[in-house]
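Follow-up to my earlier ticket, as requested here are the two runs.
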Amino acid sequence: MKAKTIKQVIRAKVDAWIESIEDDAVRALVQGNTIVTGGAIASMLLKEPVNDYDVYFRTKEATKAVADYYVKRFTPQNRNGIPCEIYVDSEGDRVKIVVKSAGVASAEGAEKPYEYFESRPEGEAARYVAEVMDDPGDIIDTLDATKQAVAASDEPDKPPYRPVFLSTNAITLSDRVQVVLRFYGEPDAIHENYDFVHCTNYWTSWDDNLVLRPAALEALLARELIYVGSRYPVCSVIRLRKFIKRGWTINAGQILKAVMQISALDLTNIEVLQDQLTGVDCAYFCEVIAKLKDNDPSKVNAAYLIEIIDRMF
């Protein structure tokens, strides 16, 4: 797909999403601070179906405002009847969603926070999201077909771009929009958290500009994974499985780069290990972390880790 077409498709999608936002202040923040990057642009360049559009924001103010807006609209019906308190925590440099389960208490008597859906059986969350998000359909390859990007809601009796799934790090909306909360900033700052160069093309709402990086285009043409470094190299290595199944290749040097970054981490620190597994699409890891904390919350015991992984996987 041509760059001009990709830009118009993204612009149409973002405009339709913005139109659904009922709060004027939040709408203005989204209009002036949205970044679309990641797999959607890569898929369009490869003429493959777009699974969803990952959106980020360049300011903490916009990130928190959008998080607050959709948390308020995440109704008990969305929660499958689960009674819980949901709020946005914006302390420090993070914006995250915290869900507290009614009646669940720790040994100290305080409520225990947990991540919504992330402790459910493997695949359940993905199936749930697939049911409420519309079919990606055929790839859009003409300007007239941008209408497909803003098609009617997947369920006509329900509003478009409604929140259907919450996690600590992101909000999934119907109609294929994923609002990422964990990172915000200018595009270059966002991409410091990206691992492979082919995902670093981006579009910005404030100037309607599409940036296609030469290195990203070269990697896409060759379907070759080029590791550019990440804050989460453990997650990157695990994600390799997905790309390899899709026919991508990676050379030993790229894997070594990730391994070198991993070697600098203290994975015996359970908080470091848990943070490194952020973004890994496998609910079993939540259970692994929980069992490690039950065994020794201060330190990861390698022998015990091997035992529970063998048992679960």
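Run two:
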Amino acid sequence: MSERPDLVVTASRLFCADTGLDGPGGIAITDGHITAAGPDVSGPATRTLDFPDAILLPGLVDLHAHPAPGEWRWGIDADTMMLRRGSTTVMSQGDAGAHTWQEYRERILEPAATRIMMALSPAVLGERHDRGLFIHLEELDIDACVDTIEADGGDIWGLAANLTDIACGDNDHREVMERILTIAERTGKPILYGTRKTPFDWPIAEQLELLRPGDVMTYCFIEPQESLDGDGQVVDAYWRARERGVLFDLGLGKGTSDMGSAVAAIDQDFPPDTVSSDVYKNHSGWDPPHDLPMTISRIIACGLPETDAFAKATLRPAQILGRAGEIGTLAPGASGDLSVLRWGEDPVILADAPDNDREGGALQPVVTVRAGEVYEP
């Protein structure tokens, strides 16, 4: 390094699935970007931070969360409940729609230190009100949604589709999905898809057949009757969808519930493609806090290897968001986004399995760095 960096962060372990780093070392950041990474980086710098008992990862990327105004249905403050807890990039699952997108940009996206992307709601109001998204079918305005996406400068990743009975009300969920697919086809955008969760009125196989390569099914293990058959085997529809290029996201907003299906799926070599938290308003005040580090801890407790879990919360979602090389990596030139975590010693319930509750230590945020700026929990 020819110039003194603005910041050097060292730790007993660096891990980066993109560059292959896995061992002691440091990260140098100048002007908000990584300038050096590896075992020989240690300073001097304008500011140095050393963590001899922690893991340093690329800034965590949460593919499914709810950064939004506090008075909206699910909204929480991204900088408080996400950035300071390890997540430097988060994607909103449909908090804004065509008629609320500009307000969302001005109130949430632009002022936030957190990098926020949007899976736009096909409903024009998004999740502003405490009611089902699609109970008024006229609010699923195809042209308004298409126009909003086409006018966007790159913050809208795709569409969010949540087709529960609460979301759809008395409307035909198949018609709702048909309209969403029309928007997706007209804009060339992927879908972050939340399933019907009532498999007897719409089989999961039929739902997954509608998804296309690059679409993401979230909540993939929350409903065991969707993911596992009567013999505890991963259903054929999941395997077929994965073969076609459909992706599977954890979306673990319920905390520990129904993780027995995750245990079974991982044991059968069907892990999630990405690990996300679905953190939203109802998680405020949880002890221990619900965040992406806790979600990573839970899926590790279910049998996912630690390094795989780290990759699925950094590199893989970065690739899905189309931001590989910029985020989810410790490579020089990338954004200076880091997450420093430490394993807590106090045991917590990490997963509910069919046979027992799995307890253990959980990853806890120590420091987060976003574009070279340091944030503490």
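The only thing I checked on run two: The longest strand covers residues 47-58. Let me know what else you need.
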